[in-house]
## 1
Amino acid sequence: MSTSSHAVRFARVREAAPFALPLLVFLLVLYGMLAWTVYTSLSDWQGTAPNYTFAGLKWYRFMVGLDRFWVDLDNNLRWLVLGVVPTTVLALCVAYLLEIGAVRGIEAYLRTLVLYPAAMSFVVTGTIWSWMYQADRGVLNTLLRAAGLERLTSGYTTDPATATYWLILIFVWQYLGLAVLILQASFRSVELQEMVESATLDGASRLRILIAVLIPNIRGGILVVVSLLLISALKVFDIVYVVTFGGPGYATDVLALFQFIATYQQHLVALGSGLAVVIFALAFIIIIPYTIYALQRWFE
Amino acid sequence: MSNGATKAPVSQIVVGVIIAALVAGVAGYWAGTQRGGGMAKAEERKLEIFHWWTAGGEREAADAMFKALKAKYPDIQLVENPVAGGGGVSHRVVLQARLSAGIPPDTWQTLGGAELKSYVDGGYLEPLDSLYTELKYTDAIPKPLANAVTIGGHPYVVPLNMHIQNILYYDKKLFDELGLRPPTTFDQLLAAAKAIKAARPKMSPLALGSKEKWEAAFVLDSLLLEVGGAEHYVKLYKGEVDVAADPAFKTALERLNTLRPYIYASHPQLTWDESCGLVVSHDSAMVIMGTWAIGYFKSRGWTPGTDFGAVTFPQQPERVLLFHPDTYGLAKGAPHAKATMDWLKVVASADLQVPTDVTQGGLFARLDIDPGQFPDPIRQELQTYVRGNPGKLILDQHGSIAPFSFTQAYWDVAAGFTAKPDVAGTVKAVSELFTTYKVQEGAAWYQWP
């Protein structure tokens, strides 16, 4: 009896092996690289030749002594808050408007229009927006001047104090469509539709339905959107690289861009790895609530 | 049973693939260790080269280089690994990966100075003493140029050109119209800027594009050179000046701040070529840029000497040219060392330097080439000056004297200052950068004069 169950188990393992193997290789590569990066960040690698001499926290101490690091961290937090909250709220509103047919007739067009930016790469959007943001000949200021609204014109990304916000706006624009799509999909469960129907019969207003019925019941969808946006905002690199290159000075710099500069321009590889570890740690902190939620659902 | 029979091959295939991959890996490693391991086999006539001249204008210069090689050694098969993108940023990423992995190309483009030193420190380059002796190359090029490619007493690369950083380009027609003389000192620059602003209120007299940061450092450098002089300039970037207590650095920043109202305001949004474009479109009248701008102006249909002029800036207290070279060396463990040495001989020759430098925009590294080979009066004059005064060349901060880790951070601070001037804060920040990046230690190799 027992031998035959062993045989069955063995057959199962053999059956699964070919499929588990790619996963294993993937995990090995992924976590192997991660461990390697952590180790490099603790080494003394500066210059072009690898140097894995253990240096402890030397380069982390160097990192926290740099003004640029704190500017980056500050900017990354701005990205996390302003890239995620407005996008989610706006996406909820747009998705609901589309859902209740407030814009019947042009809904299909509107949906395409909103989703379109998500199909473009950040390099393309970044280039287009950097043209629009040009203070003296960009389309935004040109339109404002033509409309006689001279005092609304702005230097956009040329002012170190506000440049980051203009970059975040590009991110919001680009991710809105995707967020709308996910939220609209989560409206569509049969249960939820029935609840909305009965609430409507009870005479609830549309705003009340959104707040009291829809939002509490699409927590899963919102969580997906928020986590997606958080991770994307945290690892932002392309928009900054293309539009401002971290400038003016390093006013719009973010951790991911500094990691690139430190590693390949400054040849401070240990520092660059340390910055990568910081980004990973932040991502880890952000993803924990999502993991807990997912696990709770799993065991329910 | 039939089930087992159909499944077995799958796992067998997987195992087989893994074994094959392992064998291939070991074999590849073995082949790698055997390479250059003193085998008497005749070397292939091949040259693997890494360079970043891929953008318009520079691509033509690269072609001119390889044409010169083909003319001399038609049997050498060229393998180019240029990385698109230009400017050398992505180039350095790929090169770094190849070098750390122990599979270097035979030769690659590098600036002299600090960048070269990083490769020498990494042990990636062979010293070229015998080649220099054979070609008498040290005597053929200016001494400051030879110093910029010599680390610890050994020359490591062969320079093929010199880019000059401190040049002020100006709209010649406008200057003639307004009766202005091209400025060669700060006072003259300020006066010219004021005169242009008065005559053309819509213009920003001095163009600037600080998106890539180094452009702002160019302007600061020129001002600094006038305030402190040549010796101070070298000492500063060797980390031998206490910036926090240095009146010259502070004055240079203050002068830059004085110029700011006359500088193109949206400069953080522009790259260097776009800033030169402001002069072409008559939005600006002057720009401080390296010799490569000549090629840009020409590509926009501007004729040197007619549409635009150029002067060394500053020319007080003396006329110093800040330079950096493009160079090639021999990789340690190069698969085709002999072909590479042939290539380096071509790089050192006038046959390569004349067509390449005329196209790409720099000056000739060799002093014995007739300045009349340049089609434009600007470089004819510059090359003649270099011939007569080779000692007036100083390796610039772009190339650079100080280690690259410092230089990058320094550019950011300089660019930050042009956007938001804070003299005291910038003095403090720069002073800290010199300590943080241990400049004095890292720049000790540089000897001037």
## 2
Amino acid sequence: MTLAALTNDQRDALQELTNIAMGQAGSSLATLLDAFVDLSVPRIRVVEVVELPATLAELVGKNNLVSAVRQSFQGYLRGEAIIIFGEPGTHALADLMGYEAELAESGQAELLLDVANVLSGACLGGMMEQIRSFTDTHGPAELSFSMPSIMARDVPAQAIIDPQKVQWTHSLLLEVNFTIKDRNFVAHLTMLMPEDGIEKIRGIVDEFIAAF
Amino acid sequence: MSEGTTNLSLAETVLKRVDVGIFVLNKNFEVQLWNNFMAHHSGHLAEEMLGKNLFDIFPELPKPWFTKKVNTVFMLNNFSFVSWENRPYLFRFAHNRPITGGADHMYQNCMLMPVNNENGKPESVCVVMFDVTDTAIATNLLKEAMEKIADISNRDGLTGIYNRRYLESRLESEFDRTRRYGGTFSMVLFDLDFFKKVNDTYGHLAGDKVLVEVAQRISNQLRASDIVGRYGGEEFALILPETPIEGAQVFGDRLREMIELEPVIYDNTTIPITVSMGATEYSADLASYDKLILQSDVALYASKAGGRNRLTCYSPELESIAASGAKH
């Protein structure tokens, strides 16, 4: 079964779906941070896990140091979200997130977790909201999240994920760049899901296409 | 039981009695629910808490941070988390292991979740708090053990000062740091004079005692950032961060004198000890850190050749002495 290949129509529809979701996520973030949030159009693709390190290296820049946070989600969809922060990191956001300007090591870790949690929640939450708006055939579109944890601090982009240790074969890679006020910060979000999760998304996308 | 469960729904009873902290806040941070766990640990009963502003009752809470945290949940309609590893606790509660604990407060993991009204909009935030003191204590013990193991692997078994592997790695990182950020540092290589004779005359146990004693005396003189290690058999090395060669010379000479003036006593025998030293300073034109080792070795050789019990600073002219003489 080749899962990776979404048809062009499916990919366009998924792109559209995430655009709307991320647009909402962006406005939530703007309200939350009380700052203007500029969001790039998210690029989305299905990537085989074995290709993930190379793809991430390509996105972030090979050997560029990044930090990553993982968080699992369950419910309507089941999987693991990995949020990757490039340089400049989250430091620029400290004051906006209610932290003191000078952060101790543990404070930095907490900020990283906080921002990651907001991003994954906003993104997946936005997607769920979209899904709820046009479908009711897949059960209630709700997710719960587990506590996020830091996977890696300042490691080369290609070294974050060891495909040998990932049980799942495919991942949905969502690339979003955030610019907040004049603070630049870049984050990438990838969702690792079991095969049936990707199939479910394919079903949702087909339904989305049919609905419009 | 006087409290009775008949007029409480099953869910309410469970919520109240479960051994997990649960409380609910509305948008004004007024407490809407406060279960037994919270009541028992905080000393504030639900009756006192309901309708009250959380920060009024607990002024010690980190207000700006926690406010933002809760507001995130309202605004994004999203879960939020606090981990003990970043923030050991939200409320400073005593924990349940007063005897075996080794911690002076309860470690907490918190999960904040939106509680939605029928329109799907979050009306209040439910905070679920887990006592993770056991996990935290175990994790901290493990961390300590790992640090201890790492430290042991960096040390010389006999003298307890750093070993050669660690010395070289520190020398390398000091070299890289200075190259990147500027500044300077020095290293001193030194050797016990006629150590073979000490072993032959007084025995190897006496020799060991001398090594331990010298290592200890030098360790006692170091500044916090200085590093001393055993480089080889009777050879030691010092790394002196932020120290130009003049400083290294003064400091090295003081150590040399201290060792000379106080002989080592072993088994009622007085063993006179002297050391020869070679010092050198970082310079931007050195290709790599091991050049520093070579230079201080050259200077050390010059000290030996010059009659021992002295310190020599490296200069390029010394190279010819080292080349013409036999290896010490």
